[in-house]
Amino acid sequence: MLDISPLKTTPLDATRLDATPIDAPRPLAASPLDATFPLDATPPLAASPLDTTSPLDTTSPLDPNPPLTASPLGTNPLGATSPLDASSATDWSPTWTPTWGGPTASDYERALWQSLSGEAEPVTLHGEDGLVLSLEVGQYAGHADAVDRDLLAHCTGPTLDIGCGPGRLAAELAGRGIPALGVDITPVALLLARASGATVLGRSVFDRLPAEGRWPYALLIDGNIGISGDPASLLERIKALLLPRGATLIVETTAHEVDERHRLRPAASVDQAGPAIPWARIGPGALRSLAEPLGYRVTGTWLLGGRRFVKLGT
Fold first, then answer.
1. Do 282 and 257 contact (CB within 8 A), yes or no?
2. pLDDT tens-digit map of 232-243
3. Which residue has the higher pLDDT, 158 or 26?
4. Closest by alpha carbon to 1, among 208, 143, 193?
5. Which of 21, 150, 154, 232 gives 20 to 30 Å between its CA and that of 47?
């Protein structure tokens, strides 16, 4: 769901660059994207904060169930010898607390684990300018709801879910038979996403990704237009990932018109030293003013369930 690295960071993990790499994906015989959407044959950079042990296998980088024996979790609380099992995960009462990353990562990842037992609490972030932002982790970690399903009806081909979080949207698309790849930098979110059936990759949107320049659909949902605190740079980066013509980017904006830049800290460390998290909040009008100079066209906008969406075309 939220995907940020430094100046390309997510409010959920401002210090992920020094984290332990997650497992490198194993090649599959038939990747969900290989059959209908060939992937970039150029090997990606090996400097991703979550994939430094081995370059991504370009023949089939999308392994939905890598082994957990080398997971950054250390001992897998659900069984270290087999992939995370979604059915058993729902009955597991989490007691483990993440140890990597800063306070934001810990709060967010702890809330994700709590979501397995249905007890996730919102994570509160405070802006240096007085903004209070609540992250509804329980919603992110749940199944796609009616509003999600409606917006996903616009995605009829291979889809890149940027800041996928626990993977509810990528999993829903996979259930519809639509190839989808989620990208995120939070290890717990990636594990839960794989458990839900989503295909995910542990990278920032600003890292090298498969099929650059050939994605027909991309998603920026749950406020992820705020990633990096610089929506214009984010939109420019995503445009390089999409097909030059005929591609669609669906963005969830604020329901009302705003155009804000913030520096956020988790509630527990508002008065502590350390880097704040750059973040942005923009409404549909501000999105249009940023997107059109970059070559996007606004092809639709709608409000459903109190959530505002804007459809951009290349």
1. no
2. 999 999 999 999
3. 158
4. 193
5. 232
> Which domains are present in the chain?
16-59+67-313 (3.40.50.150)
CA 229 → CA 60, 102, 136, 262, distances in Å?
Answer: 32, 18, 20, 7
- With vertex at residue 44, the alpha carbon angle to CA 161 and CA 17, rounded to the nearest 5 degrees, is 70
Phi-psi region of 7 (alpha: psi -120 to 50; beta: other; left: phi over 0): left
**pLDDT 10s digits, 77-97:** 222 222 223 332 332 223 333
In whole angstroms, give the CA distance from residue 54 to residue 62.
14
Q: What share of the chain is helix, strand, coil (3-state, %, to 5)?
A: 25, 20, 55
pLDDT score at 311? 99
> Residues 136, 122: contact at Cβ < 8 Å?
yes
Predicted local confidence at residue 52, as pLDDT: 31
Strands annotated E in the chain: 123-127, 132-135, 159-162, 180-184, 200-202, 217-220, 248-253, 259-266, 277-282, 297-304, 307-313
Q: What is the rounded distance in angstroms from the CA atom of residue 226 to the CA atom of residue 247?
A: 21
In angstroms, the CA 287 to CA 253 distance is 8
Mean pLDDT score of the chain: 73
Residue type (1 letter), 78: L
- pTM for the whole thing? 0.68
Residue whose pair of structure tokens reads 């949207």 in the numeric block: 169
- Classify 250 as helix, strand or coil: strand
Q: Is the pLDDT of residue 100 over 70?
A: no
